[in-house]
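User: Show me sequence and structure for the first protein, then do the same for the second.

Assistant: Starting with the first protein.
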Amino acid sequence: MDSCHFLKGSCSVVPSTVMFPLRVPIFAVLVSLTVGQYDDYDYQPASQYGPSSANCAQECECPINFPTAMYCDSRNLKFVPIVPSGIKYLYLQNNLIEEIKAGVFDNVTAELRWLVLDHNQITNEKVAKGTIDKLTGLHKILFSFNKLTEAVIPPSKSLDELKMMNNQLSKFPAGSLAGMQNLTSVHLQNNELTSKALNGVFKGLNKLVAIDLTNNKLKKLPSGMPSSLETFYGDHNDISSIAAGDLKELPKLAYLRLAYNQMTDAGIPAGVLNVTSLIELDLSYNKLQSIPEINEQLEHLYLQVNQINKFNLENICKFSGPLNYSRLKTLRLDGNNLTHADLPHDSSNCLRQASDIIFD
């Protein structure tokens, strides 16, 4: 690829903090998607903690040094064992569990903090009434890689992290997240959710900073997203447009990813992306024919593999001068109908901070 450069001036069982960034490099946002499963749970195998305590299900281990944790992972279990009182952190990942029977959580309805059910075979029909819907103290529910078609939400006002990736979700019960004022991150990627199914679901969640809806069936951004939101991932959907008011309601949005969608110039009203809070904007692998209007504060813009045939410098810098210039550090334009020769001769002042401008 051809690149031009402008230089400036010439297990612990203790719950982890939220993995999405508050204005930090974007790779930190991806940690929860790329690290190993044990790191994702701040997990250490029970064998590292010595013998099991007496207050434990016989199928599992409850280390004496960490008596509030019960490790039932990777044991070919086909059911959730009855959880004894005193357990706060329950690990059930990597089993063959198909159902959750009534009564298994009756001893810990208010005290269970973490419930990890990833990589099982659970369907909605086999989640008995009076199980998860009684867990009023949960902080984290990790229910990814199962066979759910509708989100299963505990009634806990303390919930801070919800992960239901890689299911078959097409339904999200209206009002199921209402009042969850501690919820900070929601991971729903790799499901079958539509914009309609999610409209209003996140409304009023004033601590929610990160939503990942990668690889679903969205045609537009869900309505009612909270003003606290800082990160939205909507890659690999069918989004064709952004409504004029969508981003005005998100004054803290810093990271917006909409790669691999159906975005066209007509679907981006004038000024809709001219948002001072944005740090990173990814519109790669869409159908754009021009560089959209952005704010001068944007630092990373990804437009590779579109149909852009003109370098619209005025959409990056309306005015160029000693104090008026773009803060772009990265601009990717490879996979378009542009070459280095299309870069305007007067772009060096506007793009004085850019270290990577990439063409084919």
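Switching to the second protein now.
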Amino acid sequence: MDTDGNSGDASRVVHVRFITKLDRPFKVPNSSISVASNFTRFGLSSVVNNLIQTENPDWEVEPFDFLINGELVRMSLENFLLAKGISAETILEIEYIRAVVPRKEEEPSLHDDWVSAVDGSSPRFFLTGCYDGLGRVWKAAGVCTHILEGHSEPVSSVSIINPEGADSVTVATASKDRTLRLWKFNAEDTRRNPLKINAFKILRGHRASVQSVAAQTSGNMICSGSWDCTINLWQTNEPVSEGDTVSTKKRKTTGQAKESQSEGEAVSSLVGHTQCVSSVKWPERENIVSANRFFLTSLLSEFCGKALNCLDIGGESSALVAGGGSDPILKIWDPRKPGTSAPVYQFSSHTSWITACKWHEKSWFHLISASHDGKVMLWDLRTAWPLFVIDAHKDKALCADWWRGDTVLSGGADSKLCMTSGASVL
């Protein structure tokens, strides 16, 4: 029987030794064995599972991935060795790791319009922004606890400011109505029906649509990028002074109650961009990274050739910059390499514009991307092919993020927030 699912007999064998950094019960004997040269990762995974079951009869079969010289095997052993110029005459060391395979597709969280933004940085909840002008707080798939009312146009970006804070958390939303808003709510609220809340502060100052908002790591400030070609900095904890409040009405079951909102102005405005600032990140106190349509700035000044829609900072030492735009290629730059502005990695399996990209918080190798082709892809820097493709959207995928380490969140023009859980990369 061909355990790899390939037809035909293997023309030759390869002598291999399987190694792993995984703890027991995942370890197999260190001795070398012979395997067919036409085995791909599926056949190799079958061999490793059989070796584990020899020592542990109760073992449940699990998929594995395989690394040779630090690169994931995505073809037959024979083709891989030929492509890399590796001799098959010696004992080949193959490292195996747990395969990243999504285990479950949750029921989608339905919205009334396009889901344009998502933030999953808090393990207690996730936050979405929608073209209906509302932000929403979710405890789980389909469980909305708060609705953030106030924007008059689509919400383009959302940011959780203090994800690990007290029960009362602060979030920010940015909108095409040229404003940002700050909100507070109780993250431990378990109500069945969502509570509608108003922002405690409205931030005005941009002259055009606000495309992106990002929080400083301390949570004391946020920055925003806009179609007016500026980046504005705002304080999130400044005291409310006399004369800067406006009155809003909040409906209660026993009549009307007035609730005050303060209005804030930018503490600083960064000028110099000549195109729309489509995405901003604030990875360090003194460093903001922005995508200025055709350039990545701050960490590196890189002409990208295509309009950039998104960026994120992560990977090795949290130093790599991932970005995507008006072509189907996800690009990754390493600003630590002097004298070059070319991407160090390029991934090209999407077929349309890339709208979002997000590094895994605890992995140097893994990130996700979303595209107008409706797909969300998980990438590993050690191979040019996506580890898996989430094809849950029936229209353009507009945003994506990780939640709780192994769940992929994605929103799209089909008005759905989709969740794919169990995609553990560690």
